[in-house]
Amino acid sequence: MSIALKLPLIWNPETDDTLVCIDVRQETHDVKTFTFASPDGKEFNFEPGQYFLFDLELGGESESRCYSISSSPYRRNAFSVTVKRVGGGRASNWLHDNLAVNSTVKANGPLGHFIRPKGAARKFLFLSGGSGITPVMSMVRALADTYEPIDAVFMHAARTPKDLIFREELVCLANKLAGLRLHFLPEEVTNEPSWPGLTGRISADYVKLAAPDLSERVVMCCGPAPFMAAARKIAEAAGVPPENYHEESFDAAALEEPPIQPTPDASTRVFQVAFSKQARTIDVSGGQTVLSCAKKAGIKIPSSCANGVCGTCKSKLVSGSVDMMHNGGIRQREVDAGLFLPCCSKPLSDLVIER
Question: What mean pLDDT comes out for the span 186-202?
C-alpha cells in the first residue's frame, strides 16, 4: 500500500500578498503584537531578524511600513510583528486602534538581511533598545525552539521597567536556556521603585560588565538611531571586528547592494520629471535620484528609508525609464505594472509620474 504525502503550501512573496490577523496581544501599555496567517493556510519561510513590508490603507491613502518579525520561524503556520504606538505615527496608531482579529492586510515579505550568523561555536551579544527588541526576540525564540547550544548575552534597554517588552517571557527563556544571560537596563524606575538592577543608558562600562569578552562576540543590535550609534562606538572601542557587528537599520540595508554607477553621459544629462497630480515639473540629472530632487523642490512624496527598502515612496511611472537599484521594497510584478521607487531611481529619460 502506498501512502501519498501532501506537501504543505508555502507562502510565495512574488504571488501572495494577503494576510489575515488571527490574534492581537497587548504586550505593554503602548505595544501590541499582531499575529498573521495566510487565508489559504500557507506556511511561511523566514529567517529570524527579517521583516514584512505592509501596505496599509489610511484615510483613503496607501502607506507602506516595515515591521520586523518577532516570532520564531519554526512555528510556520503564522508569524507575528510587534508594534509600538508612536505619537503622531499614522501607521502605528491605525494598527493599534483598528486592526483586529479577522482583519486583512496586504504585505510583502519576508525581506531583510539582519540575520544571525550560523555556527554552534559562535558567541553573541544581543543588544536592543525599545521596540528594536523585535528582530532579536525572533532570534532568541528560534534558539529556544531548537535547543541550540549557545553562549549569548541579551541586553535590553527601555525608558522604564514597564516599557520592557517581553520582560516575563525573557525571564522564562533565560531559565530555560543555560547559555543565555539576561540584562535589563531601564533609564529610570519611577514606576517600579524596588527595581533590583542598574539603571541608566547603555555605556562602555555597563557593556563591559555584562560581556567582558565583548571582542570575542558577534554583536546583533537593533534600536533607535542614538542607541545604535552608542552601541557601534562601544563595540568598535572594544575591538569587535567590523564583520562581527550587525545592526538593523535602513542605512545598513542599503549597503547590501552596490550603488548605481551611471555612465558619464547619463549622469551629466538633465531630464524633465513631471508630477501629474501636483502639476509640477522639475529638472533631475542622471546622477540624482528622483526623490532627492523632488524633496528639494517641495514636491510631496511619502518616504521613509530613502534606500529602496521600505517601499513607502512607491509611485506610478506613466512614461519614461529609470535606473532603479532597490533593496526589496518593490516586487517584480509591481515593476511590471509600471510602479517604481523614486528614492533609488535615477532618470534615463524624461519622466511623467502619477503623483
Answer: 89
Q: Which pairing describes strands 151-158 and 180-186: parallel, antiparallel, or unpaired?
A: parallel
Give the DSSP H or E segment for 266: helix 264-268
Contact indicator for 67, 81 with CB cutoff of 8 Å = yes
Cβ–Cβ contacts within 10 Å for residue 237, how many? 12
What's the order of all strands across the beta sheet hosting 18-28?
Answer: 61-68, 51-58, 104-111, 18-28, 31-37, 78-84
**Number of CB atoms found within 10 A of residue 117's CB:** 11
The amino acid at residue 246 is H
**pTM of structure:** 0.77
Question: 3-class DSSP state for residue 39?
Answer: coil
- How far apart (Å, rounded) are the C-alpha atoms in residues 183 and 21? 32
- pLDDT tens digits, one per residue of 109-154: 898 889 988 775 679 999 999 999 999 999 999 999 988 888 999 9
Closest to 284 in 3D by CA, of 352, 339, 353, 347: 347
Let me know: does 107 contact 17? Beta carbons within 8 Å. Answer: yes
Phi-psi region of 63 (alpha: psi -120 to 50; beta: other; left: phi over 0): beta
- CA-nearest of 128, 17, 133, 15 to 67 is 133
